[in-house]
Amino acid sequence: MNTCINNLRLINSAKQQWAMEKGKTQDNTPADADIQPYLGRGANGSLASVICPLNIGGSFDDSYTIGSMGMPPQCNVGSMGGAKYDSNYPHVLN
Hints:
Layout: H1 2-22, H2 32-35, H3 60-63, E1 64-65, E2 74-75, H4 83-86
Antiparallel strand pairs: 1-2
């Protein structure tokens, strides 16, 4: 759960950096490609390693919803269902 929440913090920080640098407002929603350089993966990096640990074999988009600037990023694992997810969900950025 801590790893997932730390990922949410990194995603939120990347969103904030993107918005500040690009002059975006609370209504704007960054795409994966917009925040990827701010996650320390560089222009040619990949978000493939940024997944919720409970989403085994999943992708960034399966694991997280970036959301608009006015909303915190969210972990999607709980919406996947299945007993293996229930004990640790929800992973929430406070």
